[in-house]
Amino acid sequence: MYYEMEEGHPERVGPFRLRSIVGEGATAFVYDAILLGRHGGSSVKKNHSVAIKVPKPSTSHDIILDEALIGSRARHPNLVRTRRLFVARGTPCIEMERIQGERLDKLTINRKGRRPVPVLRAAEIVKQAALGLHQMHKARSGCGRPLCAVHGDVKLSNILITSTGRVKVCDFGTATFVGTRFERAEDTVYGTPMFMSPEQVTGQHLDARSDVFVLGTVLYQLVMARVPFVGSRITDIMMIIAVGDFEDQLRMFKDRAPLLAPILKKCWHMSRSQRFSSAHELYMALRQAQEEIGSSLRGAPPVSLREWVCDHQATQSRRA
Questions:
Q1: Which of 51, 117, 118, 184 is 20 to 30 A from 303, alpha carbon to alpha carbon?
Q2: Is-contact 156 103, C-beta < 8 A?
Q3: pTM of the model
């Protein structure tokens, strides 16, 4: 999605010319940009498209510094690549790879509203996302110390699918890890309430299994075309997650995707020790489920995320 540059947005940041807004979060804007000239700090060629994250004026610079650090240490094809941190007029900014593709929340909606994603396709998306997050979870500092990183805000709008069909998890602005600069307020919860784990809504220590819980929530939303936890207030949603009574959601999910239901149930276990021990273990379970589903659907066309993205972009172009 592109947004025209509005008054008040800079036309240039450091050696980059900003061309359009491609995303906005709570803490920053992300711009499509090109490198104007030769610059020793950037690995891209002149006039090559990149993504530049620029913090909003109210954002602590430590949040950007933390995001750049974890992004530089967590390298994987299923994670959006952080190229470097640079400072422009005293403001830290992040140069990232520019993804040609679509956000998952945009791919799953049309004029009639949110639409369910076929089971095999949903499994493929979450499987790839899990593989990228596993690499983030096991990232180490420059001296080899485990960072114990947790994404903390896995949701459809933070998952991209490239025009070649690769899933990429993005936005590490809410990530927690050992040695973060940003000091989090004790009475403040960070993230998106409907995409939180029980330990996240109750302010407990997070680990990789917190992201595993939320990958289950993403799987549910893809298959069922709706979020599993609904309330009139944010606190209502957080209470549902904290209590952990998900029987109705699991029953409806099983009716739609019986072979994925045990996986969702394990992701959503209230006890972290009963969940998948890692995102990689979830990846393996989804791969096995895909094989079983594929065997039961002989003659079904293979999953192609690339064709899905291309068809969506073609539809958007016709409507424009």
A1: 51
A2: yes
A3: 0.92
